[in-house]
Amino acid sequence: MTTMMPKRLKCPNCGASVQAHVLMSTNFHGMTTDLRRLTTGADPWQYMVHSCQKCGFTGSEPEFTGNVSREVAALIAERMLPHLRDETVPTDTRWEFAAMIAEWRKADPETIAQMYHNAAWCAASTEREQYFRRRAADWLEQSLEGKVSDRSVVLYLIGEHYRRCGEKAVADTWFDAAIAEAGNDPKQERLKALALQQKANPQDMISS
Predict the structure, then answer these.
(1) 132, 117 in Cβ contact below 8 A?
(2) Which of 30, 38, 48, 187 is surrounded by the most beta carbons within 10 Å?
(3) What pTM, to 2 d.p., does this model score?
(4) Which 3-state string (H, E, C) describes 58-87?
(5) pLDDT band of 129, cuts 50, 70, 90
(6) What is the DSSP annotation of 94-158?
(7) Distance in angstroms (rounded) separating the CA atoms of residues 133 and 151
């Protein structure tokens, strides 16, 4: 079960007080084929990033204790402030804002991709989901130019994002790359099998 608690944060950009609900704990009971861990109860991703309703600064709880450069502050004012029309910023938009700020701060591409991936989950079954998936795929492709956590997983995820955008031919190319990268490594057997499945008989859930 997902638990959270109310907490007041201070915006590092404009100094405003931000009333947030921060994640305390959650548990998992399954996984989708785009590697989203499913939880019991409320979706934890909505409690992992927070937005200042006054200026638009968005980030995780620890980022509210950091500093904001003049350059990033100017971009926040230009790109985020004009969109603050509602009382609360939707969860998918919060992740999008967080990804944009991470990009301006020169975060690694894999981290930015994960933020867009989270945004896609939060925008599931809306017209924005595919946009976020394409952004995640783009950043994952950029991440391959450097060091990544697991190259086979990155290749697979690019394929799965394209598959869920309806681009099977492009997706299969990336699945093939993931399969080749996995090779005969015993540690990559499950990933290799998943990529083969998503080419031949794609599913949305990983069977237990």
Answers:
(1) yes
(2) 48
(3) 0.94
(4) EECHHHHHCCCCHHHHHHHHHHCHHHCCCC
(5) very high
(6) HHHHHHHHHHHTT--HHHHHHHHHHHHHHTTTSTHHHHHHHHHHHHHHHHTTS--S-HHHHHHHH
(7) 18
